[in-house]
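FAQ
Q: What does a multi-component entry look like?
A: The components come first, one per line:
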Amino acid sequence: MIRRDSLYRRLLTWLLLPLMALGALMVVQAWIEARHTADRAFDRLLEAATLAIAEQVQWQDERLWLDLPPAALEMLATDAEERVFYALYDAQGQFVTGNAELPGPPADAGEVPTLRYRDLIWQGLELRQGIRHSRLADWRQRAGFEVRVAHTREGRQRLAHELLRANLAYILGMAGLAVAVVLLAIRGALTPLSRLRQAIRARDPRTLAPLDLALPRELAELRETLNELLARMRRVKTNQERFIGDASHQLRTPLAGLSARAELALRQTDPPRWREALAAIHATSTRTSHLAVQLLSLTRLDNPEYRPELVPLSLEAVASRAVRGHWNACHRAGIDLGLEAPATPVTVDGLDWQLEEALANLIDNARRYGATHITVRARAAPPVLEVEDDGPGIPADRRLLMLRPFHRGSDDPDGSGLGLAIVDGIARAHGARLRLDAGSDGHGLRVGLHFPEETP
Amino acid sequence: MRRRPGIMLIALLWLATASATQAAERLHFPATGPVDGATDTLVVHGALDPSYARPLLEAFHAEHPSIGLTYRNLDTLGLHRRFLETPDEVDVLISSAMPWQYWLANGGHARPLSSPQAMAWPAWARWRHELFAFTFEPIVMVVRRELIDRFGRPESHAELLELLEGHGEALHGRVVTYDPERSGAGYAYAIQESRLTPRYWDLVTAFGATQTALAATTGEMLAGLKDGRYWLGYNLLGSYARAVADADPALEVVVPDDYALITQRLALIPRQAPHPENARRFMNFLLGDAGQRVIAEATPLGAVHPSLGGPGTAHALRESHGEALRPVSLGPGLLATLDELKRQALLERWKREFTRTDATSP
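Then the predicted structure of the entire assembly, as tokens:
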């Protein structure tokens, strides 16, 4: 079973895990500290006992002599009733007296400290040993000796446990407090998120108004991004609404003309008039259907979901097909339609019928705006497909406007105002850039589709 | 005494061992009823006179007749040596030699006992739940009627010192005490008293001046007192002295009222005890109500159990002598008593003080 990912759980895990690790570390440290403290406290007893014994060591009858003070041993046993061991060794390491032959310190080089402590396992007993090096204070005899005492660890353990218990209560209290604070903090930190969610959920699904909600910085960024998206959607929606308005307006005008023409013809009885009217109606409906086709293709091109499958094709083939398709019509209208193509083939990824449609639109536009020379040109490096005419051209400041649907350069009744918009849509579908320039000699218009550089 | 008529004292064997120095007396109570096997036995070694041990052992055997019980009476040193040689032979070790018993427990030879009786035992009379003091015996003076008639009864150490210094000539050879060199107990008392008061050494000097006789055992001193050789015995084991004085109107027991040492018998279960379960039963009996009542009523040893009162208990002695009682504390101070150099130093001082008057007066 896959556990659902949750910010709350993530925060909880990443805050509580280190917190627990820290707590464990503190407990370990507290235990070590408690042991050290207990050892320090109880080592004082070893120190005092060895001192009390060492003070009683004398030189008597040509040997080390000890009048053992019972209090020195009694101070080594606390309420915990430790087992107590002591021994006196001479400078040669020979046992002089004691209740146990305690092992000596490990031999080490360098200066020997007066007093040493160590932990010791001796005959299965866990002991703490104190070893004091000393010398007789006698002015005749300066023999060295060693007092070794040891006791079991019960008292130390008891003290260490007491210290640890006190510390543990403190640590547990702090841990509990920390967990509570972390829980509250996470809950508090995540509240704006649920506020944002509620605000989004509570919205009217049709509204695109920006979200107005006070949020912390990180979420404010999210809110701004969301608002930017909403603003873009608002613009798109406005464009769509205008497009629909324009399109219906464009369709209504010829339909109204058709209706008026038909009505007029119905009032007459003369068949030649009918025929005339029918011819006019036919022309208008042809244009209207052309308009409808253009609207349809524009709509399709504007659909962001539309991702046509691009295939490699030759630009000059597309250009020459377009010229061939329009040559007859142009020739009849007395327009010179020419083709310029490089010697080497120019290959881009694209859809041939869309590029042909774009060229057709551009040639049609050029014809309509009174060009006499139209050149269709394919260029390599970078790959460009362009149509140049010697017509009136478009002033530089109005060129971008021409790309809007239904925007026309002049009041041409036959033009739909969609041509350049369609070309722009096709260019975008190919990842190409549409450029409008003046013709080569400063007159006319040159419209080019600049394809992205072929990546080898 | 709740002595049932059918008490099973089947055999009482007095065995002289081959050892020339000591005679180990042995009491044996065989198991009766269903015999579970050879394991149901109990071996007790004690430095406790058989006449005092017997009532205790009988009472225990009456309570647990299925346990075959063997008791060996040894002297304190023999007991200690025998234990160190064969530590897995004995189940319960009883001795009045407190330093030696403490030395064993301190060295980890004892097994802790955590029964309710052991837990309830007063803290001053035990060590670590391993070593238990189950008797309460004062160290006393015994005086003959003759001395009381002539000089009055010395009630304290101070009065004794006064008496010795004032009437040294009259008491010449009439006083007896322990020889600390020959007797472990005498040495232990000497070291305790020297720690209690520096005036002890004046007393030793006074003993020396009156040519005090030195004995090795309480029994020896009591014998001398009974037949009139001595008029005053110093530092006798109260339990034994009481028994003799009760039977002899010429003798009186004095518990000094300035300070009185208290010696206690210590019992422990060795770590390698062969029958630890039976040893636990015996210890629980010894520390329990029944055993302590036997001690109070059938022996002069003195019961420790805090719930017991009346004659023969620590309670009664505390009521009569209160502040003067000085029980030997069960602590590592006892180890100092065993230190050989310490012993030599003390004995040397003791001899020096004892012979001081010989050296000064020609």
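Q: Is there any commentary attached?
A: Sometimes. For this entry: The first strand of chain B starts at residue 25 and ends at 29.
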